Amino acid sequence: MEFLLDETDDPGPAGALQEPRRSYSPAPRDDRVLEIPVIDLAYGMGGTYLDDVDPETRLEPFPLSFIRRYTKAKAEDLVIADGLGDSMAPTIGSNDQMLIDRSVDTVRIADQIWAFSFGGVGMVKRLRPRPDGSIAILSDNPSVPEDRAVDDELFVIGRVVAIVRKV
Predict the structure, then answer these.
(1) How many distinct structural domains can be found in the chain?
(2) Model's pTM, two decimal places?
(3) What is the DSSP letter of 135?
(4) Among 23-27, 145-149, 152-156, which stretch is predicted with the lowest mean pLDDT?
């Protein structure tokens, strides 16, 4: 009562047990786990239009030892996306999950698999730099013809470093 009447600075009666202050501390961080964004936008192996798309993302934990088998990239440079289509079959099938390393954005070695945008269309294909400065866009499915990008038609999103599929 004295505290409410501003007669004392002590809110409790003398000798009363007071509840100890609890300080907030976040859950301990597990350095053995990386949280990687999983996007709900499927990258078309044949092509997916990326204009006006706002993909929903969610973070999922992955064991660091699993991710380090494929890349040394930081978690913020990684994304997991689903494949769509059959132009990269048998290497990548529809609904296979791809680990994309966005820290690698320059094609220096031929025939690696990349996620990229070509004329506003998101794709996953093999890329092969040509001596004339163009880049060959190759599918693993032999029934899909080669395409070529010149000048600034191709924007690299990242290199596909792992493929995970259900059996």
Answers:
(1) 1
(2) 0.73
(3) E
(4) 23-27
